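Onboarding guide, step 5: your first structure request.
Type a short instruction followed by the sequence, for example:

Predict the 3D structure of this protein.
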Amino acid sequence: MLVSGLTKERAFVAIGLVFTLLYLLLVYARGSASGVGMGGLFIAAAGMLYFEKAKEMESLPVTSIFSRGIAVLILVGVISVGVSFLGYEDLNYVGHPERILPFFTLVALTLMFYGRIAFEKLTAEYSILLGLGLPPIILNLLAEPIAVLTANTGGMFLWYFGFEANVVGRVVYIPGGAVQVTNECSGYLLDAWLIGLAIAAQQVVPLKNRAFLVLLPLVGLLIGVFTNTIRISILAVLTRLQDEERFEYWHSHDGSQIFGLFGIGLFMLLYWLLLKRQDKQEREMKERQASSAAAILARQNPNFTEHE
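The system replies with structure tokens like these:
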């Protein structure tokens, strides 16, 4: 008990909500509506898992003054860094490092209310928030090879549909038109969202086959590349048609968001199918086990009759 009527859980949640609101306001101020929605989704998933174990963690010993002091310093750092990000013209160029702030907020709150002993208990929550913040930073460093890969897959896509496509570096040429795949147009941010979703989904509704821990982020990356390949191919065709209005729509307006939603929806559909397959396999295994048990009892007792 912290003070009368205020438990660790309530204090943790109250401060967490304040910093969540500040983070979402920061993202909104940066002009990223999709970042607000996706960021809120990741934080809500981590919060849901926290509530499942909060009562159990209430009994952990009181943290030291040193731990609480470190926690306060981290929270002050989170606020200071968040404010400084408001001065950046475009965080897209540096991999949106503001998305790592919720992770450090959770570190601070853990130290403040539970101490280092709780880090192991909150592994899933840390994984989800790392999935929000770390992939865009890493993939930003790989944006150039991703852009080259997207240009080449876009050229292959156009060739398959009958266009005389030629790719030089990151530029896709077709007769009468061309499009350059810059780092910002490489789709690395969508790839990062999909990798993060793969990590979060495995923590919230896990697949029992541990191989999916590695395979699903890779699948998310491939879905992102495939989705952006279609978009780049459409842009190349629009340059040939000299349709500037539609080009701008699919390049930087709602059209680009539609492709992002398509990629996320495709990944979620795939994960749902994998969960259905897992449930089916578990049911079949239980039925086989029940049949085997009934057969053994029947051999041991000839008068045994299985009832539904």
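Each response can be followed by summary notes, for example: The chain has two domains: 1-141, 142-298.
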